[in-house]
Amino acid sequence: MMPTPPPLIPPSVAAAAPDAPRARRWWLGLAVLAVVATGGYWSLGARRPDAGPAAAVTTAAASVPVVGAPARQGDVPVYLTGLGSVTAFNTVTVKSRVDGRLVNVAFREGQFVHEGDLLAEIDPRPFAVQLTQAEGQMARDLAQLRDARATLARFHDLLAQGIVAKQDYDDRLAAAGQFEGAIKLDQGLIDNARLQLTYCRITAPISGHVGLRLVDVGNIVHATDDTGLVVITQVQPIAVVFTLPEDDLPAVLAKLRGGARLPVEAYDRAGTMQIATGALLTVDNQIDRNTGTTRLKAEFSNDDDVLFPKQFVNVRLLLDVRKEAIIVPTAAIQRGPQGTFVYAVRADRTVEVRPVTVGPTVGADAAIDSGIAAGETVVVDGVDKLRAGSAVNVTMPGGAPSPGAPRA
Fold first, then answer.
1. What is the CATH number of the domain that holds 152?
2. Is residue 281 located within the same domain as residue 238?
3. Is residue 146 part of a domain?
4. Which of 116, 199, 208, 252 could hold 234 in an S-S bridge, CB 3.0 to 4.6 Å?
5. Is this prediction's pTM over 0.90?
6. Going by C-beta distance under 8 Å and a sequence separation of 6 or more, which residues neighbour residue 94?
7. 8 A C-beta contact, residue 89 and residue 300
8. What are the pLDDT digits (tens) for 59-77?
9. pLDDT one-digit tens code per residue, 288-339
10. Domain tally for the chain?
11. Which domain holds residue 288?
């Protein structure tokens, strides 16, 4: 028989083999306890008050960055705004009052002319001929009148002597009267011919700017032509007609009745650049029922010719000035279901929803009737991330930190 081989596992190890899984579980449990203890230690350390700079960094990260502006006190002008159109005080279409050929145009297009300046000339020769004819007829009738009066004087003496009949004397008296009437008619023809000669020289009826020439030299013009020769517009001074809602009319009328001179400003189509300054002249006598507005007229000196007839302008009428009003940027004013409000920054660097009553608005500023005091800071940018009580990191316009803001 072959000898039996010795066992591969020593007896001592073989006896301990059934206890190996139990040892591994024991070491695994110790490792889990160590991990839990370590996590608890760090958790307690993070909650302690003396966590150091890490806590400050976490708090600063939770603040909402916003831009604020202080409420200030000042004067706020109260404006009424409307849409207007520039209107010339006088517009004249210059026409010929006689028929004839245009022989001279004495103006330049766009020129400023004064009343009485020569504008154009019509050929005067036909009317000069008429004047000569009327004067010749006048001379003839004057000679006949003198002869008729001399004959009448002789018949008057003969009638006194009984040599001629009363009928003959009356005939001579009537003939003399007819020639007197002819003389008046001749004088009228002479005056008319002279007037036609005057009309051949067309002069400016008003002072103003002439437009483009409507008829060229050499054309035959007629007194019945619709177009005329040129259009003159009076632009110094000039008027602006604009509209305001009828609800604003009582306040405007009260100022006018009190003798106040209400300034009016004209702005360009975009409403950003002021063009001219004038004064309110009058208010129309009726209200447009379709639009609920009334028309007003303002007068501008227009010395620099910046306003042109038919030009569209935006108009601002200065009605009043509110003294010592609280002013905030219009960007700070928010609107919600409960009305208008602002986010006011409190001393602890949190915001408060503050209801406000908004007064007149001028450009980027708005007057606050109630709700905010002068010196308080309101949020003007970053409000979309805010709620009541939100912590904020406020900077003023231009990037400067607000007074009292924490420094890094």
1. 1.10.287.470
2. yes
3. yes
4. 208
5. no
6. 119, 120, 202, 204, 205, 228, 229, 230, 231, 232
7. no
8. 445 788 999 999 999 988 9
9. 999 999 999 999 999 988 999 999 999 999 998 888 899 999 999 999 888 9
10. 4
11. 80-88+234-322
